[in-house]
C-alpha cells in the first residue's frame, strides 16, 4: 500500500489554511475557523483535501501512537491498558496515575526519574479536586506521564542511559525519529520541544494521516497492531472519562483516534481510511465537528457521528446556533443550526 522510500521533508512555510467551520448564530455566520483537512482512501490515496495538507506542522500529541509504536519496536513489552497509557494524553485520573506507577515499577525506576514537566491533572473535575485537597502539580499527574514512563522502560531494556532520555541525540529519540519518518513516509522537517519536554517532530498533515493508517492496517501481532489494539480496547486509558476522543472510538467500530493540542485530530479505520485535521487557531470547538465531518466524508455512517457535531452556541441560556463544518466537508448534512 505504501512505498518504503522516503520523500523530502515538508516545506516550512506559512500554511495556506482554508475555512473549515463556521460559527452560526441565529442564521448568520458570526465567525470562521480556518484549518486544513485530509481524507485518505483505503489505498492511501487522497480522496479529499482542504487547506494545506503538505506544509510542515507539529502533530503534538496526535503523534503519540507513532512514538508508542517505536518503543514497542525496540522491545517495550507492554500491552493492553499500559500500552494504551503509553500513547495517552491522559486526564490524570487515579487509574492513569496507578498505570504510570506500574510502568515505572516494571522499569525499576521511580517518579523522580521522570523528566516531563510537573502539572495538575488535565481533567477539570479531577484538577479541581486536587486543588481543594491541597495537592501540588506533579510529573505523575501531567498528561504525558505514561509516555515518559514507557520511554524510561524502553531505555532500561536497551541499556541506554536514563539521563538525557529527552535529548534529541539520545538513542531512544533517534529511534523514534526514524520510525516517525518510516511511518509518515517523509523526512522530518524540524525538531523542537513539546509541552511535556519530549522532542517534537514536524511532518505534514498528509504524513500524519498516512502514519496512522499504516498503524491501523498493520498485520496482527506487529508493534503497530499492538498499539492500535491497545488504544481501541482501552480508549479511556488513552484519554479519560468523558473525553471526546474516547467516545469517538467507542462510537465507530474499529476506529483509532488521537487528539493533540492546538486543534489536531487524527483517526483511521482498519481498512486504511484515515482523516487528519488541524484547526489553525487551536480551537477544540471546531476540531471535533470538523473531524466528524471528515469521517463522514470518508464513508463512516453519519448516524454514528451525531454526538460529535459540536456544542451549541448559547444565547440567554438557550441554543441559538452551532459550529458547523463548511459545506464542502459535509457530503451528507449531519447538523443544522438555529
SS elements, strand count: 11
Broad shape = globular
- Largest pleated sheet: 8 strands, antiparallel
Structural class: alpha+beta
Which blocks of ≥5 consecutive residues have pLDDT under 50?
Answer: none
Distance N to C terminus = 44 Å
Q: Helix tally?
A: 10
Strand residue percentage: 15-25%
Radius of gyration: 19 Å
Mean pLDDT: 95
Order of helices and strands: EEEEHHHHHHEEHHHEEEHEE
As a percent range, the share of helical residues equals: 25-40%
Write up what this structure looks like.
The chain has 338 residues and is α+β, with helices and mostly antiparallel strands. The chain has helices at 64-73, 80-86, 94-107, 124-132, 145-158, 171-184, 205-216, 223-233, 244-251, 284-297, and strands at residues 18-25, 28-40, 46-50, 56-57, 190-193, 199-204, 256-260, 264-268, 274-279, 312-315, 318-325. 33% of the residues lie in helices and 20% in strands. The radius of gyration is 19 Å and the shape is globular. It starts with 17 loop residues before the first strand and ends in a 13-residue tail after the last strand. The mean pLDDT is 95.
